[in-house]
Amino acid sequence: MKNTMMEKLKSSKGESIAEVLVASLVMVLAFVLVGSMIAASIKIIKKTDKYMEDYYSLRNDFETGTVAEGTNAQNLRVTFNGGAFTSNVNDISVIVTTITSESGDYSYMTFKR
Amino acid sequence: MKKRLQAGFTLGETLVTVALLGIVFSSLTGGLIAASRVYRDVTEKANAQVLLSTAIMEVTNDLKNADASTYSATDYSFTTSARGYNIRYTNDATNGLTAEPYPNTDDKMQSIPLVTKKAGTENLTVNIEDGSAGLTYDSVNKVFKCTIVIYGTSGELESQDIYVRPNE
């Protein structure tokens, strides 16, 4: 290993095209990896922001008694469990599910009083 | 004896090499600075989201257990069984959003930061918008309302209106 390195250092020959290409490929991969990690972080933050906005908006509607059954502007389906919802009802839960074609409906959030 | 090669690089070759190295290093430096700035912003934003959730959870706990009939629209204080005494929210210069015993008839009672320094992150501050006056009670809909704001070094990072209906 040591001899090979010394030989390479003493050699006046340049690098082969294959070596240069592999080195370039490694560098490009490293840059792409860092870039994609940053992009993924930004995407997660934006997704969390939207989730929090939807969550607190629905929770505020639930607390003020203005939550409506059906599909809302955020494409979330709101269903009541325990009868009609009014601001004075104390034993009711509101189940919110997402409606997506990719992963199907799944439970998003539940409020219970 | 083997003759050593005396030939060097031409001025043109050297200049081209220096120019290429300059371009590569400047783009690398620019990229690294941008990446570190984005990383710092993303981390700060994520921490602000966590801090906002923690603060809302604390405020909700106080207000859910509040006795709405004790709410005063003049000094914005109320009694909550979560703490066992009358409080009002203030924005402390050091600790941010704080539950202050009010009126504080007993000097031994201490103001309590809603989010401790341990739970929070350096350079982030949690406040209630408009200070003590930021908490209002709507007696028609029977809900408390306030806005929680998270400030970072660059200004406001997160803000959320919250409505809480006290348990009856």
Low-confidence stretches of chain A: none
**Within the largest sheet of chain A, what's the order of strands?**
1-2-3-4
How many runs of DSSP E, i.e. beta strands of chain A?
A: 4
Gross morphology of chain A is rod-shaped
Reported for the largest beta sheet of chain B, the result is: 5 strands, antiparallel
* SSE series of chain B: HEEEEEEEEE
Give the CA-based shape of chain B: rod-shaped
What does this structure look like?
The complex is a heterodimer of chains A (113) and B (168). With 113 residues, chain A is an alpha+beta fold. Chain A has helices at residues 2-10, 17-64; strands at 70-71, 76-81, 93-98, 106-112. Chain A is built from two helices and four strands; from the N terminus they run H-H-E-E-E-E. A four-stranded antiparallel β-sheet of chain A has the order 1-2-3-4, with helices on one face. The longest helix of chain A has 48 residues, at 17-64. The mean pLDDT of chain A is 76. Chain B has one helix and nine strands, in the order H-E-E-E-E-E-E-E-E-E. Chain B is α+β, with helices and mostly antiparallel strands and 168 residues long. In chain B, strands 1-2-3-4-5 form a five-stranded antiparallel β-sheet. In chain B, strands 6, 7, 8 and 9 form a four-stranded antiparallel β-sheet that branches. The N and C termini of chain B lie far apart (103 Å). The chains are: A alpha+beta (113), B alpha+beta (168). Chains A and B meet through helix 2 of A and helix 1 and strand 9 of B.
Features:
heterodimer, A: 113 residues, 4 strands, rod-shaped, B: alpha+beta, five-stranded antiparallel sheet, four-stranded antiparallel sheet, 1 helix, 32% helix
